């Protein structure tokens, strides 16, 4: 029955996860193979200890399991060799119960998980998939674009950021735009890419969301970025809406190198979860005290979720320079925002108005406008790629 339902949705099973298995003295590969054989999505590749240097490489698999019967000096040496070969690959260690000192020694190897024997097969499979997911998302970046209030132009910015990333900054990488405003699905309307797929059809079984499903529902813009935008207001109150949205976002971000997420100003049950997971956050506001106060509230909220080191910035959109200065100057903004950087984007009513009327990104109206140049300059200041420690 499960297979029939997946076929009806036009989906295929999730991609295979390649697991490299290394067993130490007095431990056997069969112990682990018997536990994971229940999952058709896992392929196990045993590696002999004598062949570690040639067969254990970052490209050979998605995750490595080291199965040992104790944690003596021989096993410590084995773990050292494994980490030397694949320093960043998720590592699961299966062993008998450990003493406190042995546990401290084990976790110096940056293990993803430790599975004490006897190992439960279900727990091991779940840990494998979590580790594989972590590796696949390690280099992928997710950028939240958040409206402080309605009408500040965050959707236009999200569309333009995805467009700039695809056309100017990451031409050879995969870029996506994900619209979390299911009440309006305005990203799709702004660029005339309305998606009629009924997400409610999978709301009852969100676990079926996988890479193949994501490829089925995506729209591909001619400028080189994928679009996920749906006008499905019922998802905001759907019983399984929370899980479905997070699984969709999870699958999308695994699929693409750079994902820009348009987050509406109103409250949703998944908002904190998304803000807790993204790599950067751009708060979009306007130069009036009402919008700025809401922006300060968001800053406090995100700081509480992510801490002061998180890549958070404010964009003051629709900015008009004035001969005799602004009612709210830079000093006042610094006072309001504290140590959070902010930048101005110029008002571009004619360009954006025409773009919306035509259903195209603003770059189709004026490719090198002040607005787009300022936005690209801002994007270069973001942590679009992983910052080295």
UniProtKB/TrEMBL annotation:
<feature type="domain" description="Response regulatory">
    <location>
        <begin position="18"/>
        <end position="132"/>
    </location>
</feature>
<dbReference type="InterPro" id="IPR027417">
    <property type="entry name" value="P-loop_NTPase"/>
</dbReference>
<dbReference type="InterPro" id="IPR001789">
    <property type="entry name" value="Sig_transdc_resp-reg_receiver"/>
</dbReference>
<protein>
    <recommendedName>
        <fullName>Response regulatory domain-containing protein</fullName>
    </recommendedName>
</protein>
<dbReference type="GO" id="GO:0000160">
    <property type="term" value="P:phosphorelay signal transduction system"/>
</dbReference>
<dbReference type="InterPro" id="IPR011006">
    <property type="entry name" value="CheY-like_superfamily"/>
</dbReference>
């Amino acid at each position: 029955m499960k297979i029939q339902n997946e076929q009806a949705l036009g989906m295929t099973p999730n991609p295979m996860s390649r697991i490299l298995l290394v067993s130490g003295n007095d431990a056997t590969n069969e112990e682990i193979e018997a536990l994971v054989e229940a999952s058709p999505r896992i392929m196990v590749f045993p590696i002999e200890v004598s062949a570690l240097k040639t067969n254990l490489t970052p490209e050979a698999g998605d995750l490595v399991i080291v199965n040992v019967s104790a944690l003596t000096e021989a096993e410590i040496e084995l773990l050292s060799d494994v980490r030397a070969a694949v320093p960043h690959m998720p590592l699961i260690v299966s062993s008998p119960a450990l003493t406190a000192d042995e546990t401290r020694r084990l976790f110096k190897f940056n293990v993803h998980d430790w599975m004490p024997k006897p190992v439960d097969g279900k727990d091991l499979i779940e840990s494998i998939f979590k580790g594989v997911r972590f590796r696949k998302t390690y280099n992928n970046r997710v950028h939240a674009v958040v409206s402080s209030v309605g009408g500040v132009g965050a959707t236009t910015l999200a569309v333009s950021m995805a467009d700039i990333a695809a056309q100017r900054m990451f031409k050879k990488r995969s870029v996506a735009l994900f619209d979390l405003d299911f009440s309006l699905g305005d990203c799709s309307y702004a660029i005339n890419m309305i998606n009629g797929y009924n997400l409610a059809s999978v709301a009852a079984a969100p676990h079926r969301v996988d890479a193949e499903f994501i490829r089925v529902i995506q729209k591909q813009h001619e400028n080189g970025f994928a679009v996920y935008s749906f006008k499905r207001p019922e998802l905001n109150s759907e019983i399984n809406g929370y899980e479905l949205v997070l699984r969709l976002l999870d699958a999308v971000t695994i699929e693409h190198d750079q994902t820009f997420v348009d987050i509406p100003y109103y409250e949703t049950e998944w908002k904190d979860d998304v803000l807790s997971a993204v790599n950067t956050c751009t708060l979009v506001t306007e130069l009036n005290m009402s919008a700025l106060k809401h922006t300060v509230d968001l800053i406090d909220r995100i700081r509480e979720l992510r801490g002061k080191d998180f890549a958070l910035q404010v964009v003051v959109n629709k900015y008009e320079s004035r001969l005799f200065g602004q009612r709210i100057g830079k000093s006042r903004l610094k006072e309001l925002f504290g140590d959070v950087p902010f930048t101005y984007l110029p008002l571009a009513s004619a360009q954006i108005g025409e773009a919306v009327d035509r259903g195209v990104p603003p770059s189709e109206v004026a490719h090198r406008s002040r607005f787009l140049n300022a936005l690209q300059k801002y994007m270069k200041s973001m942590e679009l790629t992983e910052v080295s420690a």
